[in-house]
Automatic annotation (TrEMBL):
Coiled coil: none
Gene3D superfamilies found in the cross-reference section: Fido-like domain (1.10.3290.10)
Domain Fido: 104-249
Superkingdom of origin organism: Bacteria
Organism, as annotated: Streptomyces thermolineatus
Cited SUPFAM superfamilies: Fic-like
Protein name as catalogued: Oxidoreductase
Length: 273
């Protein structure tokens, strides 16, 4: 497929992107080669899901301690608890949607929003893209909000690109999906949570992280909400430098997620977790 027909692949030639892709691949390969992964990978996957959900909720304004997330069973007591509960539900749901994503990414996005927002938003707005005049509750994303018709056209365009297939590296595709969903905010709420879950689906479904042990959400949270927004603002400009910087930011987030899971592997190996 040529880069003309495959615009995602063309992003691989942006400054620094090839280096980011290669560094991420090597970093992911190292954690997959850890001796603990040979016999306890399910535990690493479960812990990565928990830590990724906690971090995604933190970026959404609900910055809870990991042990509180682990301990709590009721997430209906207040708005912050609702955000944490939504992040946990999305983390559990994402792994069930890989096959559907390959056939209908828009269907998966609708399902993710339903899982995240069901019960906390008006029933007639849940699980579908927003319509003209409908508000968006996404205070953490300080970007101009595209009109509903522009959003719909760009969302359809993204889906067509994904369905057509791409030779772009997984990191690039995941970063674009993540960035577009945050820039477009297609739903009335929970767009950040949905965008980060979609990024996870791409990283897992592409084969880069098939066991879902590299929680990029952890890295995004560790880099900080301000840096996250600055990188997103660069992406939203559509300039080569802005898009390249966003991809690099996503690469750093994956690497930090790998570091988190490597620490879990080491703790398990020592018998400390």
């Amino acid at each position: 497929m040529s880069t003309t027909a495959d615009p995602l692949a063309a992003l691989g030639s942006l400054p620094g992107v090839a280096e980011s892709v290669e560094t991420v691949r090597q970093t992911v390969d190292r954690v997959y080669g850890h001796r603990v992964m040979r016999r306890r990978s399910n535990e690493i996957t479960a812990e990565a899901a928990l830590r990724g959900a906690r971090a995604s909720a933190a970026l959404q304004g609900a910055d809870w301690a990991l042990e509180e997330v682990r301990r709590r069973t009721d997430f209906s007591s207040d708005p912050e608890a609702g955000v944490v509960g939504a992040a946990l539900r999305l983390s559990a749901e994402a792994g069930q949607l890989l096959g559907t994503w390959r056939q209908s990414p828009l269907q998966v996005l609708a399902r993710l929003h339903l899982v995240a927002a069901g019960g906390s938003a008006p029933d007639d707005t849940v699980g579908r893209p927003r319509r003209a005049g409908e508000p968006v509750d996404e205070p953490a994303v300080a970007l101009p909000l595209p009109a509903a018709d522009e959003m719909s056209a760009r969302l359809d365009g993204l889906a067509r690109l994904l369905l057509a297939g791409t030779s772009a590296p997984a990191l690039v595709t995941a970063a674009v999906v993540h960035g577009e969903l945050l820039a477009l905010r297609p739903f009335g709420s929970c767009n950040g949570l949905v965008a980060r879950a979609a990024q996870r689906i791409v990283l897992v479904g592409s084969g880069l992280d098939p066991k879902s042990i590299c929680p990029a959400e952890v890295g995004h949270a560790e880099l900080g909400a301000d840096a996250y927004l600055r990188a997103l603002q660069g992406y939203a400009t559509g300039t080569p430098d802005g898009v390249a910087a966003w991809i690099a930011h996503c690469a750093e987030a994956v690497k930090l997620g790998v570091r988190e899971s490597t620490a879990v592997c080491e703790a398990l190996q020592r018998g400390a977790a």
